[in-house]
Amino acid sequence: MNHAPQAAKGKLGIWMCTALVVGNMIGSGVFLLPASLAQYGGASLIGWVITSLGAICLALVFARLATLLPHKAGGPYAYIHEGFGDFAGFLIAWGYWIALWAGNAALTVAGVSYLGVFFPRLNDSNLAAGATAIGLIWLVTWINSRGAQSSGRVAIVTTLIKLLPLAGVTVAGLLYLNPDFVQFNPQHKPLAEAIPATMALTLWAFLGLESASVPAGDVERPERTIPRATVLGTLIAAALYIASTVALQGLMPAATLAASAAPFADAARSLWGEWAYYAVGLGAVISCFGALNGWCLMQGHIPAAAARDKLFPAFFKRENAAGVPIVGLLLSTLLVTILLACKYAGGDSGVQIFEFVILLATATTLLPYAFCAMALLAVMLQRHRQFRPRDWLSPLAFSGGGFVFALWTIFGSGAEVVMWGVLLLLAGLPVYLWQLRENIVKA
């Protein structure tokens, strides 16, 4: 087996790209998902496996798009804008923006759930939990408004703090697994309903896989490195997700696991005592806070990128003295605040709120994913003279697989979530018409 060549100076090699994929995917999802999946028991593992295969198909779509369009910045929005034009580009930018701030709501809920390890009042009072969640998102917004950037060393430290407790509990859980606790389908739900539902939940843990599709100019031998790093990173994340789900289902009865607001911390306490409970809880809080801080600025930059292409209103381009697109940042956080206030005021538990908002974020992200699967073929059709018939075989396979997977997972999100996702997308149409009028007037 040949050793991979050393990456050129200033370029990203295979291991750095793989680390980027793993680091961006493993966020809050793995910390709360075992509780959400407990009602499905061992059947959730089928969902994990199918989701992993679908995620690999989608990751390969982004990898191929990155090599075909090496100078296009903006990820899914840029690719779809290239393949399908202005209207599709607007819809995807709008949907992706919704996914970002809805996802940040989920990160906030997860962080507050694990803060309950240290402040039990947060587990008992929706008012206290809601106020803490809203305070946390505005704190992170304030930090980002100052243009704060995480250094490489801080990123490494927070990643280690995140992964060590996860790996420790997972390995110990597999060693001390109680087979009596593991039930295949404890609530006897029809598999045709249970498996798509688990897929919709588990896909949340893979959101961010498109971050591997960095511009090809920043990667050493992008036509080889990006696809390999994407698949390898997705496999590493999938292995940790599946192993941790099995471990926790084998450590705690299904009913106990489903009711846990901090399943990894509770599992650690059952294994090693109170100190482990607090150690894992601290790791989860740091992980959620770090992920929230990293994604928060994105919710300002996506509408700003669309505004520069004259697809979003121009005010989204406004920057503060620190160079941060402040209008998009503040408006997004206001929407997160409204979503959190509505859900906490409704009396839902932390896990119920987490499930709803991750399903909403996932459903609105799956539309860009489905569009990207077809955008790859659209771009190839636009350049059809560059390709031989056999060059179409693998893109047709993973684009088709990714597209079908995205549609099936949208179905698994449930009628309520799909309804909200469609309504939020349709709410963008007046914005598009207004912007179209502005562009015509200024022409």
UniProtKB/TrEMBL annotation:
InterPro entries the UniProt entry points to: AA/rel_permease1, APC_superfamily
Membrane-traversing stretches: 12-33, 45-66, 87-115, 127-143, 155-177, 197-217, 229-255, 275-298, 319-341, 353-380, 392-411, 417-434
Main subcellular location: membrane
Location within or outside the cell: Cell membrane
Record keywords: Cell membrane, Membrane, Transmembrane, Transmembrane helix
Membrane recorded as keyword: yes
UniProt-listed Gene3D superfamilies: Amino acid/polyamine transporter I
Bilayer topology annotation: Multi-pass membrane protein
Similarity comment text for this entry: Belongs to the amino acid-polyamine-organocation (APC) superfamily. Basic amino acid/polyamine antiporter (APA) (TC 2.A.3.2) family.
Task performed by this protein: Major component of the acid-resistance (AR) system allowing enteric pathogens to survive the acidic environment in the stomach. Exchanges extracellular arginine for its intracellular decarboxylation product agmatine (Agm) thereby expelling intracellular protons. Probably undergoes several conformational states in order to translocate the substrate across the membrane; keeps the substrate accessible to only 1 side of the membrane at a time by opening and closing 3 membrane-internal gates.
Protein name in the entry: Arginine/agmatine antiporter
UniProt organism field: Vogesella margarita
